[in-house]
Every structure is written in structure tokens, then in C-alpha cells.
């Protein structure tokens, strides 16, 4: 009986134990996870807390930093509350799309013993906003979600407050003069030490291409410094000789484009910096303003002179294919006004700024070489209307110049200055109203441009022809778009202009002009509201035209390629048998061949012209020959014999234009060209 009683008691005890364990497992699911997720955490177990997502770097927390300790303890407190409010094991990808998982914020606790506990705060929008938090140890496919909505929301809000963006590598200046101190610091150095190097910027480059820690053979090892809590700060002075090269020789530093390289742990990070010459020249201001040049320095004071050649005026232009707009300056403007020495090295290659700077530019290349480094020009050195033009922005800083546009035809070049001198500003504020002279007729391809109600005129004070911008651009087949500037834009854009606002305080809008491959930008002020008038010579230069005057008729001809590569000819005189040829259509030029109205030249040579509109064939007949010419064909026939033309006949303004020399000589005439007089003599 006692045995039976003891057996029954044992069975009751065993069943009670099983029921208790079952109750623990079902009633408090978190107990089943104790072998994976810790039931509790202690701040002493935390070695580090990292905050991360795939596209952003955040500052970690360390328990031995006083400012971090309180945050870690708060996270631990909320985690310990959560362990009694966890659901069954499930894949986090059921609530978070797997393809987007790496873009979600995550908090990773590094635990003593080498384990990692990861928390994923998420927000899903379905019928309503759902906030959630999941925890896992090894894989998000085995996660536990917090089931208490209030606790989940609190945990997420607290965690997200601790996501602090890492500043990464920082320096005390991105433009440093030789001889100055450079301080580099970081809050995301993932290792015990950080290795600091300077690497000349050039391309193409393959990294690594040298034994560690050198990323490339030309890199200079500056120093290795200790890292604590992913942070370090180090200061060194830029000298001509410093650090160590791969072969053990001292490193050589010179002005140019460099990359500051920081290697720590398994990561390499780079920051571009610009090293400038040690000599800082006297402050100077040069302003181009609508045909005149204002120059100021403490030594010489203020001078005002006229720009001798309009082709030398600075412009904010670019090639459409390049996608970049930059201030372009001619070689003569660089020499005469900015004081930049220019020496020819070989055909198409020039050294700028003297041998001590070592800056070399080459025709057609988008980069300049500078003491073994390369700098982007955002364009190329090229010739335009017999003038060498060069993008200025990225290399002008090596001469201590920065650029600021003050209006559509006004730009300042400041050396060692943050603003215009007062006496120079006073002269610029004298707006000098235009002196309206006679109307001027603008023609292209022998046809007058339709400029609408506002006509071109000569401004006698500035000695330039002014044209309405929009009407002229559209008459040439181009496009124009206007954009307002938001308040504060200038200060934001100063970051990309070496600290100087790229536009003046009065500028409130800009307009972009496109014609073929040409792009041109003009900055506007409230004074330019309404119809903007611009100098015709500036418009022509920006869009690839040249100008010629017919003074007798008060007409200016645009000479340059249009969409058909046809050019209007300079004021040329054609004489046939001593008599000036009269034509109702101006000559044009196609591929360096002068084209003239077929009927006018044929009839002047006593020939007749028949036109077949169906086949677009012209038949020219005289006593000795019959010549057939087809529009847009390079083949012609004389008495049935096939002949070749350098350029095809072309139809312009309902007139058939033919090569002057071909037609004349085919009809038995002799042609003489006198270039010095722009005179064509035809005798028959």
C-alpha cells in the first residue's frame, strides 16, 4: 500500500512537472527561445552596439564611453522587457520584403563570447501603419517579433533616436596651401590603427596595384595612428618632402589634385583634396562687364578699360555632349587681365602659370596634368573662331582665383578676396542705360531673321549691337528655358565654388540656351525681367557664329554652321564681264564652296534655265552646252557627260543655289578669286 501510494505521488509529481513545463512553454513562448535569444541582457555583456544599413554609415556605441553608456542601458532595459513579449519563431521576410531587407535600419549588439544579437525595427504600411521590431541571432529567417504594439513602438522610437550619421573622414580644409597644417579625423575607422597616405589623383588607375599599405606605387605613406572607439585625429604639415614612398625614399608633395587615403581594418576610404601653392599673391579683382574690364588691386587701385576683341569675353558655355557648363576664357584674357603666363610646349600643348606651377593643357583633352596629378577641366582646350578657349573653374583655384557671375554679361574673378571691393562695386552699380541707335537688320543665309516686335539696335555707348535673346535664339532654330533660383541657393552652391557664392546677391534666375551641340547659360537679375537684350557678338560667339557687317545697308550677317552646315558668305562682290552681279538671294557657303542663285549667274552668262519641279532638275542651256543639275546630288551632266561636284546644289528660300565656280567654268567662263578684296571675277 505504501509502495502504491508512493508510486501515485510520484506520478502526480511527474504529471505536475510536465504540466508546469507545458504551461511555461505555451504561456510564455520566449522560454522556448532561451537557447538562442538571451532571456536577459546586461550592459556589462555588451562590447559594442552598431547601427547600420547597406547604404549609410552610423556611429557605434561603446559601453566604456560615458555618453554612450546611458543609451546602451536604455536599449538593454527595453530588450529585457521584450523577451516576455516575443512571438513564435518565424521568418522576418514575411513582413519585410527580402529584396529591401538590406535597406532597413538594424541594430547589432556585439556580445561577450563573440555572439551577435540583431534588432530590426521596421514600418509596414498596409491598411494602416504597422510598427514592428524583430530579433535574431544567426539569420533573419529565424526571427522573433515583439507582439506588444506599445512596447514595439517604444523600442523602435528609442532605437531610431540613436542612429547618428557618421561623419567619416574629415579634414580642416579641402583646399590646403603648401606649408599649412592638415588635420584628418574620422569616426568610422574600423580597426586598432589607421594608416594615412597621400595619393596623386590620376586615371585610369587600378587599386590596389602595390603591396599594402600602398594603394598605388606613387602613394606616400604619411603615418599610422592609434584608433580608439572607431575614432582618431591626426595633424601634419604639408612639406615638399615628407612621408615615405614604396621604395623607402622620402615622398615629394607638390600642388595638384590628391586623394587622402585612410586604411583601417579591412576598409580603405578616400577623400579628394586640392593642394595649392604656398605663395599667395596680392589680392586682386577683375570684372568683365558688357565689353569693359574693371581691374582692382591695393597697389594699382581701380582701372577701367575696354576689351579690344569681343571674342575674348568670358562665357558660361559648354558642349551638349559633355553635359557640363563652365566659364570659358580665352588665352588673351588670361594673359592680359588675369596675369597668367602661357608658354607653348608643342603644337596644341601649353604650360599655364609658369614652370613653378607645372600646369599643362593639351588641345582636345578633358584633363590637365599638374605635377604628376590630373585635374578635370569639365571640357577641353579648343579653338573657336581662331581663339583658344579653355574651361576655367577647376584649375583657376591653383592661381587663387574664384569666379562669380553677377549678370548675363558680367563676371568677376576674385583672387584672395571673398567679395568685390567697394570702389569696384560702385562703378558696377552705375548701370549706364543703353543709348538706342539705329535699328540693325540681322540676316542668316541671306534671309532677314524675324525677331518679332523687338528689333536689334546699335548701343552707341557700348558700341555693340543688342538683340532680343529669346526671339534671336528661336529664329536661329534654338531652344531657351528659364529657371528661377530658390532663396539661399548661392550659399549652398558655394560649396562647389571653393567657398565663394558662384552668383551675385542680385541674381534671381538663369536661362539656358541650346542650339545644336552648343549650350549657353545667362544669369539674370530683376533688372532683366521681361525681354532680355544681349550683345549680338556674345550670342554669336556662344553659339558658334561669326559676324560680318554690310555698313551700307546697316545689316549684320551671321556666319556659322546651322543644322545643314551652310554658312552665309562675308560681303563678297561678284563681277561678270566687268559688271556687278545682281541677285535677290545672298551667296552662301557649303563645305568651303560659294553657292550662288543658279538663275542669276546663268542668265548673266547669257544662258537659259528650265526647272522641272517633279524631278527637281535644272537644265542650263547656251550656244555651246546643255548642263543638267539635280538638287541634293553631287552628279551633273554636260552634253550627256557625267561630272562630279564637290558639293550638291541646294534649295534655299525657293531658290536653287549652285557652286559658282562649277557652273561658270562648265559654261566656258574663267573664274578668278581675289581674297584680299573679297572679289570674284568671271570672264567669258
Describe this structure in words.
This protein has 11 helices and 54 strands. It has 684 residues and is an alpha+beta fold. It folds into 6 domains: 32 residues; 128 residues; 107 residues, Macroglobulin (MG2) domain (Immunoglobulin-like); 145 residues, Copper Amine Oxidase, Chain A, domain 1; 121 residues, no CATH class; 115 residues, Copper amine oxidase-like, N-terminal domain (Copper Amine Oxidase, Chain A, domain 1, 2-Layer Sandwich), CATH 3.30.457.10. The strands form 11 sheets. Strands 27-28-21-20-37-36-35 form a 7-stranded antiparallel β-sheet. The radius of gyration is 38 Å and the shape is elongated. The N terminus is likely disordered.
Coarse shape = elongated
- Quote the CATH topology of the largest domain: Copper Amine Oxidase, Chain A, domain 1
Radius of gyration: 38 Å
Residue-averaged pLDDT, rounded? 85
Tell me the strand percentage band: 35-45%
Helix content: 10-25%
CATH homologous superfamily heading of the largest domain: Copper amine oxidase-like, N-terminal domain
The count of domains is 6
Straight-line N-to-C gap: 151 Å
> Class of the largest domain in CATH?
Alpha Beta
Number of helices: 11
CATH architecture of the largest domain: 2-Layer Sandwich
Residue ranges: pLDDT <50 for 5 or more in a row? 1-35, 562-570
What is the tally of beta strands?
A: 54
Structural class: alpha+beta
The biggest beta sheet reads: 7 strands, antiparallel
Strand order of the largest sheet: 27-28-21-20-37-36-35
Amino acid at each position: 500500500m505504501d509502495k502504491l501510494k508512493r508510486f501515485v505521488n510520484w506520478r502526480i509529481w511527474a504529471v505536475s512537472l510536465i504540466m508546469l513545463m507545458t504551461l511555461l512553454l505555451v504561456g510564455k513562448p520566449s522560454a522556448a527561445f532561451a537557447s538562442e535569444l538571451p532571456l536577459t541582457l546586461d550592459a556589462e555583456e555588451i562590447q559594442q552596439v552598431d547601427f547600420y544599413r547597406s547604404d549609410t554609415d552610423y556611429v557605434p556605441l561603446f559601453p566604456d564611453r560615458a555618453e554612450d553608456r546611458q543609451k546602451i542601458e536604455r536599449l538593454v532595459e527595453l530588450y529585457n522587457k521584450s523577451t516576455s513579449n516575443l512571438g513564435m519563431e518565424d521568418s522576418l521576410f514575411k513582413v519585410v520584403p527580402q529584396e529591401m531587407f538590406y535597406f532597413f535600419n538594424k541594430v547589432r549588439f556585439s556580445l561577450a563570447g563573440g555572439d551577435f544579437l540583431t534588432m530590426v525595427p521596421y514600418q509596414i504600411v498596409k491598411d494602416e501603419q504597422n510598427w514592428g521590431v524583430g530579433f535574431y541571432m544567426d539569420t533573419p529567417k529565424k526571427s522573433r517579433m515583439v507582439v506588444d504594439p506599445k512596447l514595439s513602438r517604444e523600442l523602435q522610437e528609442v532605437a531610431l533616436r540613436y542612429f547618428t550619421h557618421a561623419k567619416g573622414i574629415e579634414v580642416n580644409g579641402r583646399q590646403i596651401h603648401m606649408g599649412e597644417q592638415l588635420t584628418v579625423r574620422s569616426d568610422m575607422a574600423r580597426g586598432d590603427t589607421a594608416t594615412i597616405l597621400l595619393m596623386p589623383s590620376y586615371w585610369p588607375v587600378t587599386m590596389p596595384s602595390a603591396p599594402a599599405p600602398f594603394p598605388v606605387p606613387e602613394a606616400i605613406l604619411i603615418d599610422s595612428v592609434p584608433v580608439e572607439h572607431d575614432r582618431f585625429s591626426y595633424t601634419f604639415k604639408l612639406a615638399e618632402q615628407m612621408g615615405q614612398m614604396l621604395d623607402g625614399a622620402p615622398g615629394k608633395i607638390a600642388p595638384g589634385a590628391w586623394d587622402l587615403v585612410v586604411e583601417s581594418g579591412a576598409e580603405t576610404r578616400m577623400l579628394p583634396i586640392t593642394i595649392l601653392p604656398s605663395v599667395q599673391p596680392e589680392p586682386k579683382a577683375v570684372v568683365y562687364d558688357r565689353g569693359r574690364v574693371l581691374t582692382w588691386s591695393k597697389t594699382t587701385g581701380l582701372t577701367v578699360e575696354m576689351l579690344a576683341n569681343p571674342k575674348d569675353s568670358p562665357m558660361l558655355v559648354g558642349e551638349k555632349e559633355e553635359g557640363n557648363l563652365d566659364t570659358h576664357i580665352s588665352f588673351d584674357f588670361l594673359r592680359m587681365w588675369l596675369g597668367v603666363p602661357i608658354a607653348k610646349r608643342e603644337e596644341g600643348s601649353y604650360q599655364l602659370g609658369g614652370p613653378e606651377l607645372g600646369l599643362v593643357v593639351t588641345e582636345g583633352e578633358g584633363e590637365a596634368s599638374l605635377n604628376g596629378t590630373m585635374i578635370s577641366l569639365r571640357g577641353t582646350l579648343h579653338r573657336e573662331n581662331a581663339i583658344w578657349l579653355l574651361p576655367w573653374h577647376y584649375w583657376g583655384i591653383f592661381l587663387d582665383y574664384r569666379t562669380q557671375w553677377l549678370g548675363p554679361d558680367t563676371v568677376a574673378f576674385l583672387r584672395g578676396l571673398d567679395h568685390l571691393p567697394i570702389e569696384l562695386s560702385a562703378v558696377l552699380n552705375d548701370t549706364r542705360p543703353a543709348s538706342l541707335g539705329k535699328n540693325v537688320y540681322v540676316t542668316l543665309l541671306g534671309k532677314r531673321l524675324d525677331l518679332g516686335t523687338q528689333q536689334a539696335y546699335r548701343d552707341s555707348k557700348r558700341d555693340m549691337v543688342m538683340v532680343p535673346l529669346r526671339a534671336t535664339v528661336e529664329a536661329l532654330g534654338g531652344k531657351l528655358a528659364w529657371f528661377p533660383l530658390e532663396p539661399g541657393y548661392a550659399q549652398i552652391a558655394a560649396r562647389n565654388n571653393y567657398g565663394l557664392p558662384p552668383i551675385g546677391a542680385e541674381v534671381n534666375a538663369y536661362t539656358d540656351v541650346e542650339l545644336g551641340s552648343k549650350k549657353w547659360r545667362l544669369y539674370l537679375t530683376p533688372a532683366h525681367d521681361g525681354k532680355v537684350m544681349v550683345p549680338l557678338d556674345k550670342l554669336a560667339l556662344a553659339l558658334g557664329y561669326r559676324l560680318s557687317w554690310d555698313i551700307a545697308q546697316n545689316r549684320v550677317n551671321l556666319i556659322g554652321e546651322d543644322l545643314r552646315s551652310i554658312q552665309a558668305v562675308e560681303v563678297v562682290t561678284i563681277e561678270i564681264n566687268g559688271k556687278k552681279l545682281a541677285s535677290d538671294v545672298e551667296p552662301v557657303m557649303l563645305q568651303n564652296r560659294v553657292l550662288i542663285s543658279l538663275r542669276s549667274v546663268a542668265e548673266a552668262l547669257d544662258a537659259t534655265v528650265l526647272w522641272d519641279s517633279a524631278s527637281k532638275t535644272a537644265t542650263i542651256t547656251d550656244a555651246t552646252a546643255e548642263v543638267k543639275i539635280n538638287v541634293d546630288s553631287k552628279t551633273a551632266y554636260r552634253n550627256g557627260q557625267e561630272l562630279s561636284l564637290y558639293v550638291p546644289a541646294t534649295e534655299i528660300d525657293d531658290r536653287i543655289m549652285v557652286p559658282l565656280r562649277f557652273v561658270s567654268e562648265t559654261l566656258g567662263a574663267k573664274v578668278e578669286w581675289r581674297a584680299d578684296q573679297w572679289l570674284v571675277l568671271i570672264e567669258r
